[in-house]
Amino acid sequence: MTEVRKPYNTWASRRPVADKQKRIRREKQTAAIQRFAAGKTETIEATPKLK
Question: What angle (nearest 5°) sits at the alpha carbon of residue 43, between those of residues 38 and 47?
Fold first, then answer.
């Protein structure tokens, strides 16, 4: 069941979802920790905080 999501107004675009930004930040932080654990970097890189 694929359903096409349409906004209420045809001229409106979908609103950005904050959860997506949180997920991207969490994935970047996890990747940085994995690189540190593998010995590829000396420090864990900090990810920028969300506004």
Answer: 100
